[in-house]
Amino acid sequence: MSAPTEADAAPSLEEGDDAGASPHAPVTLGATSPAGRVLGYVWTPLLVGASWALLYWWLSQRELGSIEQRNLTWSNVRTAFVQHLDISLWATVFVLLIAIPLGVALTRPWARRVAPSIVTFASIGQGVPSLGTIILAFLIITRTGRNAAIIGLVAYCFLPVLRGTMVGLQQVSVDVVKAGRGMGMSRGQVLRLIELPLSVPVVLTGVRTSLVLTVSSAPLAAFIGAGTLGAFITSGFALTRPTLIYVGAVLAAGLALLADWLGGIIEDVLRPRGL
């Protein structure tokens, strides 16, 4: 199971400053030919489906012991999928609800003095290993596995969206903002009609990174009893049953690939035309 790199995966504030010097440079994030995009849309689900089908065929050819048979039932697999998606979905929702408004606020003139301190504080969550944030949430905040996993993943996956929002807004040309103000727009109108639309591509990049981090880190919730596909991995390790580990790893990796695939589609669909 692979996860994107941590702080490096998020756009940097320095990049946003440089981008502001060239406000009219075309944004090329994710830009591919139409044929390339269609191939990308089809290729990833096919790859994941083929890997899962191959895993099923491999299991059907093996003599499974009683432990494997008890763990690898359709009911258990379905429950693990639901737990995995439930934790990933709610963690992503809370990240978006918190990080985007906070990122907007920190780019306003009245908040720029405190912005570096808050970004540094947010970086702590990603500086700690994802397993560490989940276990800390379990030990300090709540002993409910599902809720602790969601809180830990929010802390871990918060930074890419926060930085993406800030960088996206900071790269908007000051001249464009002044032109909007000169046309009689209020600060709110400038934000809503000029700054946010122009920042969408960079914000979506941060959202995609955060989504993949969340889905790929969700198996760690198994360590605090929250289930997910990671439960097969922890059970297989504890019972020395490699088959369970393989099943959990392949299924979880497939979900992470699908999350990246979904994020790419969202980027293409929501990116304003002409950017």
Overview of the molecule:
The protein has 275 residues and is mostly helical. The protein is 73% helix and 0% strand. It contains 11 helices and no strands. Helix 5 crosses helix 7, helix 7 crosses helix 9 and helix 9 runs antiparallel to helix 11. The longest helix has 33 residues. The chain is flat, with a radius of gyration of 21 Å. It starts with 12 loop residues before the first helix and ends in a 5-residue tail after the last helix. The N terminus is likely disordered.
The total count of helices amounts to: 11
| Estimated helix fraction | over 70%
Number of strands: 0
- Spans of 5+ residues with little confidence (pLDDT < 50)? 1-30
Shape: flat
CA(first)-CA(last) distance: 33 Å
Integer average pLDDT:
86
Work out the radius of gyration: 21 Å
Look at the helices and sheets and give the structural class: mainly alpha
Question: What would you call the quaternary organization?
Answer: single chain
Strand count, sense and closure of the main sheet? none
Care to give the gist of this entry?
The chain has 275 residues and is mainly alpha-helical. Helix content is 73%, strand content 0%. The protein starts with 12 loop residues before the first helix and ends in a 5-residue tail after the last helix.
List keywords for this structure.
flat; 275 residues; mainly alpha; disordered N terminus
Draw up the topology in text:
Layout: H1 13-20, H2 34-60, H3 66-71, H4 74-106, H5 115-127, H6 130-140, H7 145-170, H8 174-182, H9 187-217, H10 230-238, H11 242-270
